[in-house]
Amino acid sequence: MIVRAVVEGRAVDADARFALEARYGHFTAMQVRDRRTRGLAHHLDRLAAANLEVFGAALDRAAVLGSIRAVLGDDLRDAGVRVYVVEHDGRPRVVATAAPPTEVSARPQRVTAVAYQRYLPHIKKAAGFAQAHIRRAAGPLGFDEALLTTGDGLISEGAITNVGCLSGGRLLWPDAPMLHGTAMRLLEDLDVPQERRPLRVADLPGFDLVFLCNSHGVVAVGEVDGVPLRQDAETLARLLAFYDALPWDPLD
């Protein structure tokens, strides 16, 4: 539920916010606690790279930070914040929205594999009907998230997450087109050998731990399409301890 929205620093009503948010453009999503967020530089870098590709223009980082501060106002210290850069009246506009904060589930997630590949997956696009539909369809079936795959089960990412696997002390990421998410970027600093390799749904039961990550946090995957997965307690504890110890960057 959106509690506040601003367009280029100016407060707007819900209808105006919706009209802008649904347009052509890109965005990033972050969790804010005590007016701080993890990986602020990664969020800004994502927006800057996408802006060059989508609009052929440099990003005004000061405008983005100003919009985040404006949507938080003087009263919001904890929130889920999204920053969109969307086309309106022939030019890109910065739109920021604030919603109640979201905490990652501590419960191992149930996931289902869905054959779907996003267009320009490296860009977090403002309009995402397909992913929203996939997650809505998975929910009533008892699944928390969907893994996006090719027809023969090659994993790229989750519908709104990145997917990682830990095996024998190595951190494995899918070698496939995907969004290089901010949480994934932060976990790439974990001091273990890491590599990208083709990962298939059928491979997952053989790993010590399969996990999902996004701005909400990191959570283990308990099963995929009813098949239970290993959840090595020591491996999970080390991963969560690393993520929980990451610094929060000030927004003021």
Automatic annotation (TrEMBL):
Pfam families named in the record: Aminotran_4
Keyword Transferase: yes
Keywords attached to this entry: Aminotransferase, Transferase
Source superkingdom: Bacteria
Molecular functions (GO terms): transaminase activity
Gene3D superfamilies assigned: D-amino Acid Aminotransferase, subunit A, domain 2 (3.20.10.10)
Protein name: Aminotransferase class IV
